[in-house]
Sequence to fold (95 residues):
Amino acid sequence: MGAHRAIVLLRTIDSIWVEHLTELDELRQGIFLRGFAQEEPLNAFKKEAFSLFAEMTDLIRHQVATTIFRVSIVRQPLRNRRARPRPRRPQRCDD
Fold:
C-alpha cells in the first residue's frame, strides 16, 4: 500500500471513529428511555450499537474509496541545493 493510501485510510478512520464514539455516547445517555417502552435497555443498546458500527464501516469504505479516486499527487522537482560551507571550528592551540 502506498504511503498516500495509508495516510488517507488512517485520517478517514480517525475522523469517522471519533464521530462513532460520539454517537455511542449519545445512545448510551438516552437508552434508559427504552425501559419505559418495555424493552430491555441493554439489548436495545447492543442492537443499536451494532447497527451504528455497520454504518461506520460502510462509511469508512465509501469515504476512503472516494478520497483515493479524487486525490492527485503532484511531484515537485527537487531544487538544486548548493553545498553550504561548514562553519569552521576554532582551532585549539596546545602549548
Summary: The first helix runs from residue 3 to 30. The chain has one domain: 3-70. The CA atoms of residues 4 and 72 lie 10 Å apart.
